[in-house]
Design brief:
extended; two-stranded antiparallel ribbon
Length: 142
């Protein structure tokens, strides 16, 4: 049977504070086994799997040679062509992201109009008026 890890072991393994580990366990983010009323134990495999699932490592960019001394075959160029196609896909994704952002802004404007119709217009920002009144009062008191 494999040895279970304690909160301190997991904190050391993840290089986190013990309290952060406990907080994440209580939120249900880190897989744990509750032993008793206040004690948690962890399976190392589950912790490593959880850690892998949280990984946001991006693939490395290809390194192209600065000088080509011989002719390159089509087989050698195929990864380069694929990477270039991936770059085009990234540009297309960025464009669609921009469209999504515009759509969200339009939805927010529609929601604001709906709220204004139901509740009325929000109160104007009175910061400038308050600042002017404070300056006037300070000027009078000097």
């Amino acid at each position: 049977m494999e040895k279970l890890m304690t909160v301190a072991d997991v904190a050391e393994h993840l290089r986190l504070n013990r309290e952060v580990v406990l907080w994440k366990v209580r939120k249900g983010e880190i897989p744990a086994v509750k032993v008793g009323t206040k004690t948690y134990r962890f399976y190392k495999e589950q912790i490593d799997e959880w850690l892998r699932s949280k990984s946001t490592v991006k693939p490395e960019a290809p390194v192209y040679p600065s000088v080509v001394k011989r002719r390159t075959s089509k087989k050698e160029l195929s990864p380069v062509v694929k990477e270039t196609a991936t770059g085009a896909a990234a540009k297309k994704a960025a464009a669609s992201n921009k469209e999504r952002q515009l759509l969200v802004l339009e939805q927010a404007a529609a929601l604001r109009a709906k709220i204004e119709k139901r509740v009325g217009k929000p109160l104007p920002d009175s910061a400038e008026e308050i600042r002017a009144l404070r300056e006037e009062r300070a000027h009078r008191n000097s």
